[in-house]
Amino acid sequence: MLIFFSTLIAVNCTNEESSNQQKPNAAIDKAQKWFRDYEADGDNLKVFQNLNYQWTNAKVKKAKDGIEFITVPIDGAKKEVNENWEQKLFIYRLGTDSYKVLLYEFYPENQTTVDLDNFNGYISVWDLKKGFVRSAKFANNIIVENGVVEVLNDKQLKFKSFTNKQDKKNLDDENSNGDGGSQPPIPLREVVIENSYKDDSYVYVYSPRGTDTSGYSSIDYTSNPSGGGSGGSGANNTPQTPINPCDKIKTLTANPNFIAKLEELGKKTNLKIETGYSQSKNGPFTPLVALTSTNGADRMQLVPTSDMIGYVHSHLDNYDSGQVNPDGDPLIRQPIKMFSPADIGIFLQLVKNAQNNNIPIDSVYGAMVSSEGTYQLRFTGDPNLINMNFNWNADNLTKDYITYMKQGSKEINFLNFLNDKCYIKGVELYKINKDKTSTKKTLDANKKIANTNC
User: Fold this and answer.
1) 115 and 13 part of one domain
2) Which residue has the higher pLDDT, 100 or 165?
3) Which of 53, 145, 283, 290 is the most exposed place for a label (fewest CB within 10 A)?
């Protein structure tokens, strides 16, 4: 493990309306039941507890790419009557009984209501239990900038690099100029979190993280859980060139230095510490530093550099940890022989790093060697949607991962984990075969492995 759809579903004609009326209602009822179970399974973050969901005003919608989702307005507790922001719950239907829920916050500029057909302002996206997912600024209904939103108390605000020490309520006017990453943080709204002993005041603060040229509209941004991909809606929408990783995979596996590293790591899976290397775009491999195992996890340290394009590391065989259980029996550590959540996070960090340093995205890889197989990750999604603040080491994500990987096919389990828990689409799994050819692993309609040879 490395550290480090937009319109309402409508009937075709007026006289069919009553016979079809139950369909959207049934979809809403089913999603509401799922959401109740979701909320009961662990606490929401403090800022998202006791929200007033307006289920009577819920709507069933469908994106351009066919994804069905339900929007549920939230009656927000505003401190001031003139505050201009809205919250909505978006529940995306991923399968028959599978959903993903995100909370959207809309901060329109120069508008009294949120109009996703012509939106100007900021949108932030949240996981109710895990926190921030992504955020962006929109101008003339086109995304122009990605950002990060933090919820900070008064003490934390003192450490933010605001241009002046003015009252935080006046920061909007003071910080209205500037562009991209040079623009100072912008306060969006205040919120009070009620505790049993006192009420704490917090401020939502937006910080720019760079321009976005994907051309997504606000509808594109909200009608897909990954933040795009349902088709642009403006003249500025520049389609991305599809990426086929196979050519770069063949180039990599034809590199004798890379193959030598695979063979070396294959002989070290019986050790008690992981071994690994990073690779720069010019070819050299640099050894990674092994860290002390904690909480049953084997770890390595990887510090990305501007020219880094990939990593390769080992996952170990079962071994005696040197510890004993209460009965005096030795504790055998059983590493999972597949990419960990932290491995995925580092890989996505390298993808974003490549984008920022003009390195071709299809050059970036993450590789894992184990006694049960050698695999690599490739990315074919939109790097603009990568959230550098997503916590891939979060305890709840690790617990979910362990649950997914407990039994059965590790390939199937890992791909299901990616589909269900990864906030961004485009992370692909390839197996490096013994003859050094590669096979793409995907799930078919029956959730079985589908193999595509490079």
Assistant:
1) yes
2) 100
3) 283
